[in-house]
């Protein structure tokens, strides 16, 4: 197990992103309150998507740091839960016959993209 501490700039960035995602989730809850009947469908989906995108950014930032500091790609894929994410996505598409929107937090770059991003 790696005992190194999170670098301060990364820690600050992750805290900022997670705080932003939490605020978006709180707005989702707010738009489901009975006194906010107007526009609730649109706003709950917008804020939920915003939260998903922000958490995606946080996970990819952490993954990028791990990749650049030498984490094995199989370990990285395991931590990002790429296999279970792909299975969930396939199961959703199979049930509905369509692709479901999902955070890209569980995607890992293909080998060619990994080499280009390391430059």
What would you report as the Rg, rounded to the nearest angstrom? 17 Å
Number of strands: 0
Distance between the termini: 28 Å
Q: Tell me, briefly, the overall form.
A: flat
What proportion of the residues is helical, as a percent range? 55-70%
Q: Note the run of SSEs as H and E.
A: HHHHH
Instruction: Kindly estimate the percentage of residues that lie in beta strands according to DSSP.
Output: under 5%
Count of discrete domains: 1
Mean pLDDT figure:
80
What multimeric state do the chains show? Answer: single chain
Low-confidence stretches are 96-101, 105-119
The secondary-structure class comes to mainly alpha
> Main β-sheet: number of strands, strand sense, barrel status?
none
Characteristic key phrases:
mainly alpha, 5 helices, 69% helix, flat
Structural summary, described in words:
This protein is mainly α and 119 residues long. The chain has one domain. 69% of the residues lie in helices and 0% in strands. It contains 5 helices and no strands. It is flat and about 50 Å long. Residues 104-119 have a biased composition (Basic and acidic residues). This is ANTAR domain-containing protein.
Write the SSE topology:
Elements: H1 8-31, H2 40-68, H3 73-79, H4 82-96, H5 111-117
Helix pairs in contact: 1-2
